[in-house]
Amino acid sequence: MAIGTLPVTTTARLSLRERVSELLDREHILGPLFVSPAFILILLLVAYPFCMAVYFSLSNAFIGRPSHLIGIKNFINLWDSDAFRQTFQNAFVFTGVAVAVKLVMGVALALLLNQDLWFKRLIRGIVLLPWVIPTALSTLGWWWMFNSLYSVVNWSGIALGIMDPPGPNWLGQRYYAMTAVILVNIWRGLPFFVITILAGLVSIPKELYEAAQADGAGPWARFWYVTLPMLKGVLAIVVLFSTIFTFSDFNIVYVLTHGGPINSTHLFATLSRQIGLESGRIGEGAAISLYLFPLLAFVVYAQLRYVRRQVN
Amino acid sequence: MSSMSRRRFVAATSTGVAGILAARVAPAVGQTREISYLCWNNFAPASDKKLGEIGQRFTKDTGIKLKIDHIAAPQQPAKYASEVQTQSGHDLVEMRMHFPWLYEPQLVDVSDVVAGLEKQYGKVISSAAEAAHVKGTWRAVPQYHAQFVCAYREDLFKKASLKVPETWEDLYPVGKELKKMGNPLGIAISQNYDTISTASAVMWSYGAKEIDKDGKTVAINSPATAQVVEWYKKMYRDCMDPEVLSWSDASNNESLQQGKAGWIHNPVSAYIVARDRKLVTADGINHHKSLAGPTGQRHETDAPRSIGIWKFSKNVEASKEWIRYLLGKREVYDEYIMSGSAFNLPVYTNMQDHPVLKTDPKYVHLKNEGAQYHTYGWPAAPSDKVQLITNSFIVPNMLAKAVTGTSTKDAIAWAENEMKKIIAG
Questions:
Q1: Which residues of A touch B258 (CB under 8 A)?
Q2: Which of A158, A217, A306, B37 could form a disulfide with B92 if both were Cys (CB 3.0 to 4.6 A apart)?
Q3: Which residues of B fall within a CB distance of 8 Å from A147?
Q4: pLDDT of residue B15
Q5: Which CATH class is domain A77-311?
């Protein structure tokens, strides 16, 4: 078999500038180029620490000592700990109640702020304040308000005659303490709900309300059949984000109760710090903080799928 | 003068840079000796200021540059963990209580420095040795300690003709009377370290302990612990307010300073702050010696602090030089101790009768003769597991359960079970 020769065509050599310009004109090169800085940042600041955390959780890592993989032993052993089982329960109570209240109050407040109010912009700005102030700092303020010696909450309650002296022991009794940390989380997280839902409300076409009104729909019917369906996507995203943030809350519990009394307010992040950093057991600490990862990953997947379906 | 071609210059400098990179050490000519020291924000702020002054003098005298950084105590574990994991950061670190055990494999052997100091000042006191002498090697150099002490409102005691207690049992009638006066006892029963400090002192005085000396046998379930739990129950019921269940480490100080608590168990800082801020309660506060258990034994919790050098430090000798300068020069060590009022006390036997104790008549009982000082977990060595028991607040939670309704037997059984799981794990 004979091998033929191909004619080679020569083209005029392009300058470097022209070659770069030609490369940048190609979409499959320009696109990844734009994305790459963000991708590298995510890789370094999110993916790497996450992979390290997964590795630690599957090992017997102890600060400054050699470690080896032990599989899911940390995850199994944690169930033996009374403090962990309590923390697991606390996390669901804390997140469930806080997210539910934030959702209901968030919708109500957003509806209110969507009305034509005096000083609307000022009020919207003020509503954002708890979200803007650093959590550790604002929680310190709440700590003073709940503090047994100086509690302004109890002082006011007693002065108004709605509390018997000395008033509730906010941070020293299990149910009060949980109420206190949930309350502060709601105060802190509510603006996120309000502003996001308000943005959703503003984007609902006015014609829909006008049509509903022409059909004789009252305020409740308009809310139920127009507002709520149109907000579903926004609400799903807000609830998703808030659930993740609330499950992983640290500052509020750390400052207010340190996980007490009798571990009744510990969350995964605070217990993880106690075991992983204060006691040096990084492996166990990482396992605590990653315990709910599979569940949360599933929730994220399910909710994003739902949102995508809504959009389509 | 011979000229050097460009090619020869590039070859020579490349070889030099390659050598430096391979050795990972700067050439001796270019090295400036510089060390960094990370320590906590001392509860006696004047002490930090003095440390800075001494550091400047050290640089002037030795030519070694010293950078001192401070962080709040709660941030120490996270910061130290990150320095160890990344093998970079400061050369020297201030170590609280059992940190030398926790970071043992990462700390330089400083036995030579401690030997020199012991030759000068006598043996290290027991609690500081428990904390820094790890498995036969000094992993940190003991520098000072802040023992717990009984602080009380002397003016209220006089007003009600109350006798200063000698034993923990004596404290009960006193506390009952104080509570009636609106000045209850301030003993924390919450997830904080002050709770462990007081509970440990009471337990040791009653002959109770968490773990045996072997570090393996859980010993919490004993008649002595039952006595302690019962004592706590009656104290909580008749001598204290429920607020103690929510207290942080600072709460008992504040309660005494603000005129509420009539008696607390705490380092001397409660009085120092009241005095320095000229609070109205300051004059009425005084201290008395540690309380005894049923057999007359007096044990006290101590919080010693030491200085460690990370193994990854490239300036170990210069770091040791700084420690010797700070603690090995008597006049410098004295100056440093004096600056902390009586909050930072020396940890060497021959310095126990230190002039700082004569700076205020209310420090007279800080000498606390006859009391034995220990750190958390005693008599067991502070192994990882013993420290996990401490950091999990098992004893505070056992007491909190008991005073809020759980039976003594069940509360102790719960604590025993939790401790056994940790020891077995």
A1: 149
A2: B37
A3: 251
A4: 60
A5: mainly alpha
